[in-house]
Specification:
The chain has one helix and ten strands; from the N terminus they run βββββββββαβ. It is globular.
């Protein structure tokens, strides 16, 4: 399993923006699916956005559609989550995950359920 480290969280006012980063010492080429998840206090992890090289488009959780953008820079072994128009409901600890899935639809499968170990995450607090 690839080791991932999240960064970029912080305190931001409603309507503000943040870009989260997810970095690995190396991304094996077969780890073609990446995703961002979040866990609010007292709640389970939920898939926020996932991206697969086998899928035409990334998937987004309905509440973040149009506000968040997932991307990946293979040269930098880094994935990103750009978050615009942040709302208090976005307050959570954010985690990233990656896994190999050579079949189309892998982004949706990852966002539905990740079975691996979570990294340290990065805290996002949206508050005035």
């Amino acid at each position: 399993q690839v080791q991932l480290v999240e960064s970029g969280g912080g305190l931001v006012q409603p309507g503000g923006s943040l870009t989260l980063s997810c970095t690995a010492s190396e991304f094996p080429s077969e780890y073609n699916v990446i995703g961002w998840f979040r866990q609010a206090p007292g709640k389970e992890h939920e898939g926020v956005s996932c991206l697969s090289t086998k899928d035409a488009m990334p998937v987004y959780e309905a509440a973040v559609q149009g506000r968040f953008t997932i991307s990946r820079d293979n040269a930098k072994n880094t994935a990103y989550l750009r978050m615009n128009n942040l709302q208090p409901s976005d307050t959570a600890k954010y985690f990233c995950a990656a896994r190999p899935d050579p079949i189309r639809g892998g982004a949706e499968r990852l966002c539905k359920k990740f079975f691996g170990a979570w990294g340290p995450g990065t805290e996002v607090i949206v508050s005035s």
